[in-house]
Amino acid sequence: MRVISGEFKGRKLEKLEGLEIRPTSDRVKESLFNMLGVKLYDCAFLDLFAGTGGIGIEAYSRGAEQVVFIDESAKSIKVLKTNLEKLKILDAVEVYNTDYINAISKLAIDHRKFDIIFIDPPYLKGYAQNALEAISEHHVLHEEGIAIVEHDIADKMPENTGKLNLTRQKKYGSTMLSFYGFVL
């Protein structure tokens, strides 16, 4: 696992061994960040189900101003913090070891809003749909923000959930990215 572009381009990241997490492939990551382009500069980025941090670190490397990592696995958080320390950015970002529903609720209570929310839960368990509902209900996405779900193509994502509407999908083998935003 490595950082593809930006300030930390080419830097290798630690990964969690075993089948507990499934890192986003370099192909999907590169395509995602090419699509986001300049939207990353100075944005507030939430990496939900962050795992070892590859997506959030890539966002920070490419100019995101604020990056928040959420994961409930203590093993993932340990590797994530190792990666952040290795890049000397642990103090520049926020890391929460909690489940996604509690995290979204806490962020809402703190009046936090994000420009980009990346959601990469375990596949085929319904977590992505639940996360989208919580994001819409708790208003943690800016009105012009984007929520992106990485999921298996067999995991059918809703056309809309709450006030969020599906705006785009991109397929990469058995993986798909689904983009959601508010209809303004």
Write the layout of secondary structure elements.
Elements: H1 26-36, E1 44-48, H2 54-61, E2 66-71, H3 74-86, E3 94-97, H4 100-109, E4 114-119, H5 127-138, E5 141-152, E6 160-161, E7 164-172, E8 175-182
Parallel strand pairs: 1-2, 1-4, 2-3, 4-5
Antiparallel strand pairs: 5-8, 6-7, 7-8
Helix pairs in contact: 4-5
- Runs in which pLDDT lies below 50 for 5 or more consecutive residues are none
The major β-sheet equals: 8 strands, mixed
Strands of the widest sheet, in order across it, are 3-2-1-4-5-8-7-6
Computed structural class: alpha/beta
Give the second-level CATH assignment, the architecture.
3-Layer(aba) Sandwich
Per DSSP, the total helix count is 5
Query: Which value, in Å, is the CA radius of gyration?
Result: 15 Å
Number of strands: 8
- What count of domains describes the coordinates? 1
Q: What's the order of the H and E elements? A: HEHEHEHEHEEEE
Q: In CATH terms, what is the fold-level topology? A: Rossmann fold
The CATH superfamily is Vaccinia Virus protein VP39
Q: Proportion of β residues?
A: 25-35%
